Amino acid sequence: MVKRLLAGPWELIRQRFPDRQIYHRSDGQVRYFAVTTEMQVGALAAACGLAIWLTISTVNMILESRTDMIRSARFNETITAYQAQLEEARAAEAAAIAFLESRSDAFDRTAGEFQVRHDTVRRLLDFAEDLQIGERQLSPSLDNGRILMAASPADTAPRESLIRTAAHTGDGSPAEERVASLMTDQEAALTQAEESAESRLENLRAVLRLTGLRLEEVVREGRSGDGGTGGPFVALDSSALMGEGLDLSDPFNARVARIASRLVELEELERALAATPLNVPVSGPYRDTSPYGSRIDPFTRRPAFHTGRDFAGARGTPITAGAAGSVVYAGWRSGYGRTVEIDHGYGFRTRYAHLHTIDVRRGDVVEAGQRLGGMGTTGRSTATHLHYEVWFRGNHLDPERFLRAGHYVQ
């Protein structure tokens, strides 16, 4: 069946490719090769197969080459993109490092400035603490537990700093916020110290002014007693507080310098106030019998000037020091009887006359309110009483002004 089907096409092939003979003569001999139809068809098939294989291989090579080119192009694009990203990352890294270095430098500078501020504020607050300036008080404590009362109406409006320090601005980082918080605390501490110092200074000035004396004279007298100095009333020597070489053009340093000057002035005025005889010199019942000034002399009945104030009481009533000081005289003085005189410094002296007994000796250092003796009637006296005199720079003054000022120091 198959042979009959293939017989027709095979006959056509035999007609197309009939058997052939190839003759070859060599050395007088003739030889031939028979090339049958099968051999021709086989050769043709082999040639066609080779051609097809070559065609397919060539096409495959072309396609593979194109694919490789595409892959290579994509790879090159990827490499280029990676290199661009790498350059960007390196640039970003360099920028980040530069930013961190700048921030680190800025932070170091801020930390250094903050440390200086902290040390300055700490020294200032330590000094203020020595003066018992802390929380704002209307009646701050003086030496020996005495209380300074407000001698002038308190301000109705809170005080404000004359020099505003620049507000700290940061980038919102935790470290910056922490530094800003600490600086705010420092500002609050400075404000509190400044307000307390100003309030206390006003009270001190008011109390001292009630004595009728000029503050400049009192302070200058106190300085001259320390070896002779001069200059204006408020001498700023705050290097111990602020350290050397601070730039006072900086608002913070200027403010600290101003507060330091207030504290120095405050310390000086408190020393002056402690030397001012403000206490009543009698510890016990008494009555006023003769004020300071013009009067009729009880012995001669002629006009005279009374250089002190008389306090009458029972014999032996304790006589106490009007302020702290040293006893410069204790004994009998003509006209005064048994007398005690105390040098309080700052040009102040007090005299206690007509004493019945004397409990101190020359050279003794006494505290304010310390007993000096007992009330008596020795010397030029008509009855038991204390003749009390207050002297400043060699001139006697009205003791009433000092006792009135003493009402604000209890």
UniProtKB/TrEMBL annotation:
- Where on the tree of life does the source sit, at the highest rank? Bacteria
EC no.? 3.4.24.-
Q: Which UniProt keywords apply?
A: Hydrolase, Membrane, Signal, Transmembrane, Transmembrane helix
Where is the chain membrane-spanning? 41-63
InterPro entries this protein is in? Cell_wall_metabolism_enzyme (IPR050570), DUF5930 (IPR045974), Dup_hybrid_motif (IPR011055), M23ase_b-sheet_dom (IPR016047)
M23ase beta-sheet core domain segment(s) = 305-399
Q: Where does the record place the DUF5930 domain?
A: 157-287
Instruction: List the GO molecular function terms.
Output: hydrolase activity
SUPFAM superfamilies in the record, alphabetically? Answer: Duplicated hybrid motif (SSF51261)
Q: What's the name of the protein?
A: M23 family metallopeptidase
